[in-house]
Write a structure and sequence with these properties.
Structural class: alpha/beta
Number of strands: 16
Strand content: 15-25%
Radius of gyration: 24 Å
Shape: globular
């Protein structure tokens, strides 16, 4: 039997790639994973939608049937983590039956989405008679580096599989047992669908050298997605030799307009701050129009304090809510707390609110509460964030809530993707041309 030309080409390319200068064990492990991922990516790029969906459904079933093993592994991580992790990190790390069920549901939702790969759009005839269009294609190999949240392992695997990519996943050392238990379910699901086992690889070492290796092998990795704290994202951005899809902070604002409905404002703000503290779309700064502050802030502050939220405010806020609010410092306006703390500032009007958001925001998610739709539309045009909302909690800035099935992260960049990154954000486009013997 003759050799497959693509296999010969693959081997030649691998031998042509220069190996790392410091050939330590961790670097060698990552380069080997990269070679396998590159091979798997070629197979995944032409995999049939049915096979990809079958893998997603199978992984969901294995997650549910392996719940006891996953929870036991997670308990080991939580036990170790209590020695050095803060409350917010522990909350992100924890798994429970409800979260495992949500992970499985996310897989099934991704399977139900239309497969973007191979879709041709914008097809049009040119004066020469040729037809020109654009075909959606995978990015290739995606490296994902994340902290704490084991559910990211499933979200990343689901979206990379459905979008025809291969993935190398490097979770934090604090979640090593949870991630390995989940990885076992992923491997079983791939095998059940006859897809390459190397389409999703989870790094098994906790050595930090693995991160450095993953960031510096552009011959095998096409894009990096960091999910974690500011320190991680800054490190990845500075060190990576491949494109990065990322956001640094989630300093989210809600502006209560002079024409806001008090009941809506109360419901939206309390949910945005208290529904879950340790997420990037949680409210961190509340801006209130001076004309609305006197009748909206006192009952709102009462509910927030009853929910255990510490309030820090400007001088006007402290005067209005005497004895209930600590003094806000300059750093409070620039802080992503991920904790039961909320900064409050009374502003003159919407223009002042927008100016504050531009000066102190992180271009993640910002919202206005108002019954004045003219003002709402002006706010949406002026605020330069990846998600801008009207009369809705910032907690909706999420791939699951946006109908993406899941998200691989949220991007505050303007290229290549912006906002929650789902299937389309993990693809690119190439031009395709149809002719009938046309020559130029």
């Amino acid at each position: 039997m003759s050799a497959n030309p693509s296999d010969i080409q693959s081997r030649n390319q691998e031998h042509a790639v220069a190996q790392p200068a410091a050939a330590d064990a961790v670097t060698e492990q990552l380069y080997a994973m990269g070679r396998r991922a590159r091979r798997a990516a070629r197979s995944m790029s032409v995999a049939e939608p049915g096979a990809k969906n079958a893998a997603l459904f199978a992984i969901a079933e294995f997650l549910e049937s392996s719940q006891d093993e996953i929870l036991a592994a997670n308990a080991r991580d939580l036990k170790n983590g209590r020695e050095h992790l803060d409350a917010a990190m522990l909350e992100r790390l924890e798994l429970n039956p409800a979260r495992i069920a949500q992970m499985a549901e996310g897989l099934r939702q991704v399977a139900a989405l239309a497969d973007p790969i191979g879709a041709v759009s914008d097809l049009r005839y040119m004066p020469s008679g040729i037809q020109v269009g654009r075909m959606r294609v995978p990015l290739g190999v995606i490296g994902i580096i994340y902290e704490s949240r084991p559910n990211v392992t499933i979200d990343a695997a689901a979206l990379c599989l459905k979008s025809g990519n291969a993935a190398i996943l490097r979770g934090g050392s604090e979640a090593i047992h949870s991630n390995q238990a989940i990885a076992a379910c992923i491997n079983r699901g791939l095998a059940a669908a006859d897809l390459p086992p190397d389409a999703v690889q989870v790094v098994t070492t906790t050595d930090r050298a693995a991160v450095g290796a993953l960031l510096t092998m552009p011959e095998y990795v096409d894009v990096i997605v960091p999910r974690g704290g500011r320190g991680l994202v800054e490190f990845v951005t500075e060190q990576a030799r491949v494109p990065v899809i990322k956001h640094l902070d989630g300093i989210c604002h809600i502006y209560i307009d002079a024409d806001a409905d008090p009941e809506k404002a109360q419901a939206v703000v309390v949910n945005a701050k208290t529904q879950r503290l340790g997420t990037c779309n949680t409210l961190e700064t509340l801006l209130v129009a001076a004309a609305a502050a006197e009748h909206i802030l006192p009952p709102l502050a009462r509910d927030l304090r009853q929910a255990g939220i510490e309030l820090r405010g400007c001088e006007q806020t402290r005067a209005l809510l005497s004895g209930q609010v600590a003094a806000a410092t300059a750093s409070d306006w620039d802080t992503e707390y991920l904790a039961p703390i909320l900064a409050i500032r009374i502003v003159d009007d919407m223009a002042a609110a927008i100016e504050h958001i531009e000066a102190h925001g992180s271009h993640h998610t910002d919202a206005i509460v108002t019954e004045n739709m003219t003002r709402a539309r002006a706010f949406m045009r002026a605020v330069d964030s990846s998600s801008v909302m009207v009369n809705a909690s910032t907690r909706f800035a999420d791939g699951f809530e946006y109908g993406l099935g899941a998200e691989i992260g949220i991007s505050t960049d303007k290229l290549h993707a912006r906002g929650p990154v789902g299937l389309e954000g993990l693809t690119s486009q190439k031009y395709v041309v149809f002719g009938d013997g046309h020559v130029r």
